[in-house]
Each structure stands twice: as structure tokens, then as C-alpha cells.
UniProtKB/TrEMBL annotation:
Lineage: Bacteria, Bacillati, Actinomycetota, Actinomycetes, Propionibacteriales
CDD domains (UniProt xref): AdoMet_MTases
Enzyme class: transferase
Any one biological process term the GO annotation gives: methylation
InterPro entries documented for this protein: Methyltransf_25, SAM-dependent_MTases_sf
EC number(s) from the headed UniProt entry: 2.1.1.222, 2.1.1.64
Domain of life: Bacteria
Residues annotated as domain Methyltransferase: 38-126
Any one GO MF annotation of this record: 3-demethylubiquinol 3-O-methyltransferase activity
Keyword Transferase included in the entry's annotation: yes
Organism: Nocardioides eburneus
SUPFAM superfamilies in UniProt: S-adenosyl-L-methionine-dependent methyltransferases
UniProt keyword Transferase, yes or no: yes
Keywords tagged on the record: Methyltransferase, Transferase
Protein name in the entry: Class I SAM-dependent methyltransferase
Length: 208
């Protein structure tokens, strides 16, 4: 799906995605001391807004201006810079302490390009947090893309980093289960019927 299609999808007044942060973003970063961050492929900015509320100075990047406009309206005066750019070609002009990429589903060549630009945006000691629909979700999980070419595993992400010659320490890398409420109206009910979606999660720290 290209930028024009995403702009059309974001054109309505209602949010396309939940206004809450992704569960793994919250889980991995709630205890991390705030600094500078990039939310790459930020969409409507739900994760960028959550980070900014916790004290991060965030640059939210997406190729769909309509999504960024929605995010900016929701964010108010939070310390977020909104940048309309392609995640496969954009690099932060200033190294940052965190690059977050959540559900940027790309075929392998484009994915490798996005990972390269994300990596080159990181300061020494900074963290890359990459979350995506796992390849196994197609047959074992629920929701997400149905094109296997844009699904991936943690091993794929690490292989892309290795191809760059990246020096990193692994904090987490593997498949994780995400609870998906079964039907409308159950988004915040812990005892609601649910299905399991499978994601890949990679969190690494730049060492060189």
C-alpha cells in the first residue's frame, strides 16, 4: 500500500488504530529513562504520543501526511516533531537514543532499507525496537497481512542488521503472543473472549 492509499485510509475523522500504545511498546519501554526518539512509520502517532507523555522528545515519521495530521491534532503541545517521509529512505539528521518501528510490513528488500536507515539514526548505546507481524501469524495466528512476503521473523530482522555489519547487543529477539479481543466492545475487558496474534519483537542496543 502506497502513501496515497494510506492518506485515503486516514482521511476519515475516526482513528484507524487504537489510541492506546502498542502493548509491546509499553512493556519494553515503560521503565526506560526518556531521551530522544524516532517513531518510524508512526501512522496516527499513538506510540509517539505515549512516549512524549512520558518525557521523550520524539520525531514521528510517516509517508502519509493525513495520519500525521491526526496525530498532531491529538498531541497538542507535546514535544513531537511530525515529519512526512518514507521510512525506507529517511535518516534522522541527529542521532537519537531510541528508534521504534511498529508494524512496518515490507518485502525483504524494502525492510532491509528501512532497518538500515533506522540503524544509522541511532546514537551509540541507543536502542532499536522493532515489532512486526510474525511470519507464523499467517497460519497460527489471527489478523495482520495475508501476503507472506511482508511478514517476517526476529531472525530476519537480525540478519538484516548483520548484513549491515552492525555491532549490537540483543535484549530481546523472538516471537511474542499478542491477545486480540474477539469482537467489538471488548478492547479493555480482561475476561473477554480473545484470539492470539503472533508478532516478532527485536530489541537491540547499538554497540558500534
Amino acid at each position: 500500500m502506497d502513501a496515497e492509499a494510506w492518506n485515503a485510509r486516514y482521511a476519515g475523522s475516526e482513528p484507524v488504530w487504537s489510541l492506546e500504545p502498542n502493548v509491546f511498546v509499553e512493556r519494553e519501554l515503560h521503565h526506560v529513562t526518556p531521551g530522544t526518539a524516532v517513531d518510524l512509520a508512526a501512522g496516527e502517532g499513538r506510540n509517539a504520543i505515549w512516549l512524549a507523555k512520558r518525557g521523550w522528545r520524539v520525531t514521528a515519521v510517516d509517508f502519509a501526511q493525513a495520519g500525521l495530521d491526526k496525530g498532531a491534532a491529538l498531541a497538542g503541545d507535546l514535544p513531537i516533531t511530525w515529519v512526512c517521509a518514507d521510512a525506507t529512505t529517511w535518516t534522522s539528521p541527529v542521532p537519537v537514543g531510541l528508534v521504534l518501528v511498529a508494524y512496518l510490513q515490507l518485502e525483504p528488500t524494502q525492510r532491509a532499507a528501512a532497518i538500515a536507515h533506522a540503524w544509522h539514526s541511532l546514537a551509540l548505546g541507543g536502542a532499536l525496537l522493532w515489532i512486526a507481524h510474525d511470519s507464523t501469524n499467517l497460519t497460527e495466528g489471527t489478523g495482520g497481512p495475508t501476503d507472506p512476503a511482508v511478514l517476517m521473523t526476529a531472525e530476519d530482522v537480525l540478519a538484516d542488521l548483520d548484513a549491515l555489519g552492525a555491532s549490537y547487543g540483543v535484549v530481546h529477539a523472538g516471537r511474542v503472543a499478542r491477545r486480540v479481543p474477539d469482537g467489538p466492545g471488548h478492547q479493555h475487558e480482561e475476561d473477554a473472549p480473545a484470539r492470539t496474534a503472533w508478532d516478532c519483537l527485536v530489541r537491540v542496543v547499538r554497540q558500534g
